[in-house]
């Protein structure tokens, strides 16, 4: 039997590491404000024709100020990052009706806290438990206690999983009906978004459910709806990944409420992330032990729950665009202690070791048979 080594891992969570991540945010101030809404922001101007304006409309032009701060500090040896945003994007948006409101988002969290694959935050071992967690719009209402999450803002964010580098909120991957908003199961209705893949919910909170190149490269001028963009409406998941074509390396696109970084769809090597992530869409991605969320073309797209999570042999039932099973990254395997009884896939890890041993035995048997022919 092959026993995988138990390697102790620690994350890159120094003050310098935090400041590097914070520098990816399109901040308007470089300090922590007593109230982000009261600060002087940067003007964004767009045509007011046919869209809801979150600011002032003057002579047919909508003007608003975006406001964003990302500040790191050392709190008695624990590195923390505080994110403050008024929720408005640094670009135009296509919100044809309803509300589009300025927010007061303000929270602090431990930056990139150490986590272990041998101690899971989300261990979902049945289709029912997996679906009840991922397919619930408020699944991210509470961050793990180890994250040290503190909410200072006046905007309630129970459906948010984090904040994008452009100051826009990132929501759970679910619609108000607790299903995939883009690829719903039979009987469900897909939601509409603009060509930056964001939209407003009823109270006017503009947000993402899926990765968008607009997060790191805001377009200039007015934008259209996804429905009016042929490549978007044909397959929104493919369109999402293609929007990062100029960012095919590990690119920060946000911070989750548990303090972990959210990256675009690529690793530093330029390899696109299509496997190796757990039920939460998080992955151990290097030999140090760093864990982060990645943008993917499959549900839950960004952050499905707060990880690390397990790797079941089934997917959730609230989407037609999910994975059929989850697989550990090679780094996750190197950190995994096979002697634990943590259930990773609906089986115990002992069963997983047996499966690895059997697979290895079959490979050796095949090689032996091949050699005997010669």
What does this structure look like?
This protein is of the alpha+beta class. The protein has two domains: 322 residues, no CATH class; 32 residues. Helices cover 16% and strands 18% of the residues. The chain is built from six helices and 15 strands. It has an eight-stranded mixed β-sheet with strand order 10-11-9-8-12-13-15-14. Strands 4-5-6-7 form a four-stranded antiparallel β-sheet, covered by helices on one side. A three-stranded antiparallel β-sheet has the order 1-3-2, with no helix packed on it. The longest helix is centred in the last third of the chain and has 24 residues. It is globular and about 70 Å long. The two termini are 28 Å apart. 48% of the residues are buried. The N terminus and C terminus are likely disordered.
What is shown here, in short?
With 374 residues, the protein is α+β, with helices and mostly antiparallel strands. It has helices at 15-22, 127-134, 230-234, 236-242, 330-335, 349-372, and strands at residues 42-47, 56-58, 61-66, 68-75, 78-85, 105-110, 150-151, 160-164, 169-171, 198-200, 206-208, 252-256, 261-263, 282-284, 291-294. The protein contains 6 helices and 15 strands.
Q: What is the number of E strands? A: 15
Report the β-strand fraction as a percent range: 15-25%
What sequence of helices (H) and strands (E) makes up the elements? HEEEEEEHEEEEEHHEEEEHH
Amount of helix = 10-25%
The biggest beta sheet reads: 8 strands, mixed
Count of alpha/pi helices? 6
Class of secondary structure makeup: alpha+beta
Total separate domains: 2
As residue ranges, the low-confidence spans are 1-8, 347-367, 369-374
Rounded to an integer, what's the Rg over CA atoms? 22 Å
Mean pLDDT: 91
């Amino acid at each position: 039997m092959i026993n995988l080594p138990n390697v102790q891992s620690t994350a890159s969570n120094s003050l310098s590491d935090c400041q590097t991540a914070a520098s990816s945010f399109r901040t308007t101030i470089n300090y922590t404000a007593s109230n982000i809404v009261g600060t002087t922001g940067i003007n964004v101007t767009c045509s007011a024709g046919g869209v809801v304006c979150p600011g002032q409309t003057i002579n047919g032009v909508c003007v608003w100020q975006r406001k964003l701060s990302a500040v790191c500090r050392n709190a008695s040896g624990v590195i923390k990052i505080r994110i403050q945003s008024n929720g408005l994007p640094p670009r135009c948006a296509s919100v044809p009706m309803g509300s589009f409101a300025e927010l007061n988002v303000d929270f602090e969290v431990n930056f990139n806290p150490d986590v272990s694959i041998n101690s899971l935050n989300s261990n979902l071992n049945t289709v029912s438990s997996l679906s009840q967690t991922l397919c619930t719009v408020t699944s991210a209402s509470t961050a793990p206690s180890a994250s040290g999450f503190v909410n200072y803002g006046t905007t309630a964010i129970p459906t948010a999983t984090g904040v994008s580098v452009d100051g826009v909120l990132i929501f759970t991957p679910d619609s108000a009906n607790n299903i995939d908003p883009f690829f719903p199961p039979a009987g469900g209705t897909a939601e509409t978004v603009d060509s930056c893949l964001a939209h407003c919910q009823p109270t006017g909170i503009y947000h993402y459910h899926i990765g968008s190149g607009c997060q790191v490269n805001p377009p200039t001028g007015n934008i259209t709806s996804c429905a009016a963009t042929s490549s978007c409406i044909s397959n929104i998941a493919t369109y999402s990944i293609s929007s990062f074509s100029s960012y095919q390396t590990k690119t920060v696109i946000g911070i989750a409420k548990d303090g972990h970084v959210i990256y675009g769809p690529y690793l530093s090597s330029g390899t696109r992330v299509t496997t190796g992530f757990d039920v939460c869409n998080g992955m151990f991605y290097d030999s140090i032990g760093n864990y982060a969320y990645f943008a993917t073309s499959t549900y839950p797209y960004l952050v499905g729950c707060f990880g690390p999570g397990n790797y079941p042999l089934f997917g959730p039932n609230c989407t037609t665009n999910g994975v059929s099973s989850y697989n550990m990254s090679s780094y996750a395997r190197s950190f995994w202690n096979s002697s634990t009884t943590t259930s990773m896939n609906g089986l115990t890890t002992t069963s997983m070791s047996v499966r690895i041993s059997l697979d290895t035995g079959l490979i050796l048997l095949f090689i032996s048979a091949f050699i005997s022919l010669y």
